[in-house]
Write a structure and sequence with these properties.
Distance between the termini: 18 Å
Shape: globular
Order of helices and strands: EHEEEHEHEEE
CATH topology: 2,3-Dihydroxybiphenyl 1,2-Dioxygenase, domain 1
Structural class: alpha+beta
Number of domains: 1
Number of strands: 8
Radius of gyration: 14 Å
CATH architecture: Roll
CATH superfamily: 2,3-Dihydroxybiphenyl 1,2-Dioxygenase, domain 1
Strand order of the largest sheet: 2-3-4-1-5-8-7-6
Length: about 120
């Protein structure tokens, strides 16, 4: 059970402007960009930044999530988180990159966990 990467989440209305800005700021190019039709969002990553673009209505359910943790085994993390007192906000689900889970930690903060699949 390993945490592979932590993404800071940025919610925006204009993906192209934000993506160009963060690529310039970090001196890196985006490692992925895709549409998540079921949520009405477009997502992209630059370094450790995860950009979520969409309408205010589409972004609202995702704004309280502090960060996204990319993990090696979502099922092991699920068991560990639940046994550690975390409350499941959005249960395990297939997403365009793999499988994710959103939980509220015992301190009240909300985080997403995701395992990417090839």
């Amino acid at each position: 059970m390993r945490l592979l990467q932590t993404y800071i989440r940025v919610c925006v209305s204009d993906m192209n402007t934000s993506l160009k800005f963060y690529e310039s700021l970090l001196g890196e190019t985006s490692t992925f960009r895709f549409r998540y039709e079921a949520a009405g969002l477009e997502l992209a990553s630059v370094g450790d930044i995860l950009i979520l673009a969409g309408s205010e209505q589409a972004l609202e359910p995702f704004r309280k999530t502090k960060a996204t943790f990319k993990v090696d085994n979502i099922h092991e993390f699920y068991d560990h988180l639940v046994s550690s007192g975390c409350r499941v906000i959005r249960d395990l689900a297939r997403v365009p990159t793999g499988t994710n889970l959103t939980v509220q930690h015992p301190d009240g903060e909300i985080f997403e966990y995701v395992q990417h699949h090839d």
